[in-house]
Amino acid sequence: MEKKYPMFTEEHEMIRQTTKEFVEKEVAPHVDEWEEKEEYDISAFRKMGELGLLGLRVEEEYGGGGADYWSVVAMFEELVRSGCSGFLTAVGVHTEVAVPAIRHYGTEEQKRKYLVSAVKGETLGALAVTEPEAGSDVAAMRTEAVLDGDHYVINGNKIFISNGARADWVVVAAKTDKDAGYNGISEFIVDTNTPGFEVSRKLDKVGLRSNDTAELFFTDMRVPKENLLGELNKGFYQIMSNFQPERLLIAIGAYGAAELALEQTIQYVKERTQFGRPIGKMQHNAFKITELATKVEAAKELSYRAADMYNRGLDCLKEVSMAKWFASEVANEVLYHCMQLMGGYGYMMEYPIQRAWRDLRIMTIVGGTTEIQKLIISRCLGL
To answer: What's the CATH number where 352 sits?
Structure first.
């Protein structure tokens, strides 16, 4: 029988199976515990490194798998089924946000120093761009890096930094020419044990509670000039180019979590009886689930289209933005109605649907809001 999705090869399915077994053993049994203590077990992250899951697209010479983007899709589709979006976020930020920055723009020395340990799971990475007064408006950032001899002295602060409280290294964006706007931003690889680096606080979030999100401060932090990542004053363009894998990952996480929620809800409405029959037999409920399932499938297909273009190296800015905003908005719609269909039980903390409802709310905000995605798409359409 022909496979439903022919782009997934035997190798991809092996990655999916490895991830499935990892999730069943190392993640699923601990989700409630991690949520309660607001911290996942770092040993699970290390285990992923041992299994070769943290460097699927990293070149083999740095210990990675040298695989294509469909390997990432296969892994995260299975990882999201753990029901632990906080842990998925930690892994995703590391593998598809922080690591790609060094893969694409790092020197040979930087790749040897940071990629090898990142792939093994020995170190955890993060990206620090957002500031209290500079979110979507990246050019408004105030963090500055001033060259002083063989070092850059960095002062400023960042907020909403995923992995920020536990990272071993962070790619930090800073102004190296404060009067040049977008053309005055550079990126630096910063070891978190550098004097002047401070985790000001771990932020208290509505969802993704097992993942740390931090506010960071840099006070006269001296970073060797060889830690400049990529070209001087080209940081904005480096950041923008690396948004594609991040936004694709958000789309995968969104439709994947929505699929899981629908499965749980369908099982519930088959068992829940009111007025003498299962509530899933009531036409309104059956039609609502049908509508939601169709929208999830559309989000998945749109995401696959964007993933295919990205995998082939095509210009896919428009398609990735479409997938990101559509999948994240659909996921929020799905979780709203799934909770409604489950009634009071859906609102109870003992049922996983409430966690997915809380976790998925951030999807329309992180990685560029829905409004920013629409702005990008409109410009791609020549408007």
So the answer is: 1.20.140.10
Residue 211 sits in the same domain as residue 226? yes
User: For residue 244, which phi and psi values (nearest 5 degrees)?
Assistant: -60, -55
- Number of compact structural domains in the chain: 3
pLDDT for 139: 82
Residue 175: give the domain boundaries.
Answer: 126-233
Measured distance CA(115)–CA(113) in Å, rounded: 6
Tokens of 199: 């985790």
pLDDT in tens, 111-143: 999 999 999 999 999 999 999 988 888 888 999
Residue 1 lies in a domain: no
Q: Pick from 211, 257, 251, 255: which is nearest to 83 by CA?
A: 257
Phi, psi angle pair for 239, to nearest 5° = -60, -45
Whether residue 51 contacts residue 18, with contact meaning beta carbons closer than 8 Å, is answered with yes
Residues 151 and 108 both lie in one domain: no
- Split at pLDDT 50, 70, 90, the class of 45 is very high
Residues marked active site are found at 246
- 170: which strand partners? 126, 190
* Alpha carbon separation from 185 to 142, 156, 164, 172, 176 (Å, rounded): 10, 14, 21, 10, 6
Residues 367 and 287 in one domain: yes
How many CA atoms within 13 Å lie on the side-chain side of 306? 28
What CATH number did the domain enclosing 228 receive? 2.40.110.10
Among candidate residues 213, 233, 253, the one where a domain is terminated: 233
**pTM of the complete model:** 0.94
